């Protein structure tokens, strides 16, 4: 039977670590197939790494990766993808709000032939105003823009086939868009309801700044999905969108000028004497196009920089596993 890798990004979850490792061990040891549990410590400063080392001595199958500093959840998941050896890769959060007992459900769906199975926190145990409502709006927006309709892009509990994600390079907050990227390369996607629990320990690492980063990365994903091989299409459309009103304004200005010259109309004289109508629209168009162009070109450039030189978006400080727990 195919091996299963569970990838868990973790940051400052020292109180959760013992329960997380014990629960994952109990679930994975009961699936009757080879498995590994990769926990990526994303630069924790609260003693999580020491606690993880202790758990590696207790439970088999644990593989630990420690970053030199906090690089973010996307980098941690990317590191897990690169290190994973299983044909099926499961991702989940470390805060125990995801239910590890739902992992067999995801594996069952993968056995039906899907390339990605996404969890859906149908009965989400979070505050409505500041967590659930923004998430609902974001999920709808992401589904519309990417063309891949999911109820819950933000749920980390997902299953992937290794061949889908092994060559995937992730940046920013793009881990949540993996289903859309998988669909782009022809992967089949399914979504299943999973359980969700209230946070028992620690505090949430999410805030409004993260939401803004997600929106910006969504624009990048849309560009990569649709225009990465022919960017002139998007730049041309933007140019036409702003160029047509500009052309109309130019024609109106020329008409007013000719009207003033030929017929001496006062309205024509007033219009051509107002710099706002002549200069400001063109300046705004140029500035807007420059910022959009620089942002998208910078995204392409940073990917070329990392991928051409095989650079990672993270730096590993040390590794540890159950197999060599005596050296941890």
Q: What features would you describe in this structure?
A:
The protein is α/β, with parallel strands linked by helices and 328 residues long. The protein folds into 2 domains: 4-205 and 313-327, Spore Coat Polysaccharide Biosynthesis Protein SpsA, Chain A, CATH 3.90.550; 232-308. The chain is 51% helix and 13% strand. It is built from 11 helices and 8 strands. Strands 7-5-6-4-1-2-3-8 form an 8-stranded mixed beta sheet, with helices on both faces. Strand 2, helix 2 and strand 3 (62-67) form a beta-alpha-beta unit. Helix 1 runs parallel beside helix 2 (48-58) and helix 9 (232-263) runs antiparallel to helix 11. The longest helix has 34 residues, at 275-308. It is elongated and about 95 Å long.
Give a short account of the largest sheet: 8 strands, mixed
| Number of H- or I-type helical stretches | 11
What is the CATH architecture annotation of the largest domain? Alpha-Beta Complex
How big a fraction of the residues is strand? 5-15%
Order of helices and strands: EHEHEHEHEHEHHEHHHHE
Assembly type: single chain
Number of domains: 2
Write out the CATH superfamily name of the largest domain.
Spore Coat Polysaccharide Biosynthesis Protein SpsA, Chain A
The number of distinct β-strands equals 8
Rg for CA atoms? 26 Å
Helix content: 40-55%
What would the CATH topology of the largest domain be?
Answer: Spore Coat Polysaccharide Biosynthesis Protein SpsA, Chain A
Order of strands across the main sheet: 7-5-6-4-1-2-3-8
Structural class: alpha/beta
Instruction: Give the overall shape.
Output: elongated
Which stretches are low in confidence, meaning pLDDT under 50 for 5 or more residues running?
A: none
């Amino acid at each position: 039977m195919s091996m299963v890798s569970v990838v868990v990004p973790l940051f400052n979850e020292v109180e959760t670590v013992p329960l997380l490792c014990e629960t994952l061990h109990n679930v994975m040891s009961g699936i009757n197939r080879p498995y590994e549990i990769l926990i990526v410590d994303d630069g924790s400063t609260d003693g999580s790494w020491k606690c993880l080392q202790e758990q590696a001595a207790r439970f088999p199958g644990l593989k630990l990766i420690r970053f030199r500093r906090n690089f973010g959840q996307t980098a941690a998941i990317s590191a897990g993808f690169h290190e994973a050896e299983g044909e099926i890769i499961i991702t989940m959060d470390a805060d125990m709000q995801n239910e590890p007992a739902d992992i067999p459900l995801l594996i069952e769906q993968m056995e039906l032939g899907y390339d990605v199975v996404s969890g859906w926190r149908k009965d989400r145990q979070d505050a409505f105003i500041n967590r659930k409502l923004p998430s609902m709006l974001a999920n709808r927006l992401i589904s519309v823009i990417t063309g891949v309709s999911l109820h819950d892009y933000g749920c980390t509990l997902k299953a992937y086939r290794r061949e889908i994600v092994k060559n995937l390079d992730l940046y920013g907050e793009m881990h949540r868009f993996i289903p859309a990227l998988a669909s782009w390369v022809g992967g089949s996607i399914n979504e299943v309801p999973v359980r969700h629990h209230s946070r028992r320990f620690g505090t949430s690492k999410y805030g409004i700044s993260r939401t803004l980063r997600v929106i910006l990365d969504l624009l990048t994903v849309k560009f990569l999905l649709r225009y990465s091989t022919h960017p002139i299409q998007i730049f041309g459309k933007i140019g036409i969108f702003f160029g047509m009103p500009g052309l109309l304004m130019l024609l109106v200005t020329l008409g007013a000028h000719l009207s003033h010259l030929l017929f001496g109309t006062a309205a024509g004289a007033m219009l051509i004497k107002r710099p706002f109508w002549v200069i400001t629209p063109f300046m705004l168009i140029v500035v807007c196009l420059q910022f959009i162009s620089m942002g998208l070109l910078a995204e392409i450039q940073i990917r070329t920089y990392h991928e051409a030189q095989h650079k990672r978006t993270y730096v590993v400080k040390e590794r540890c596993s159950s197999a060599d727990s005596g050296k941890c």
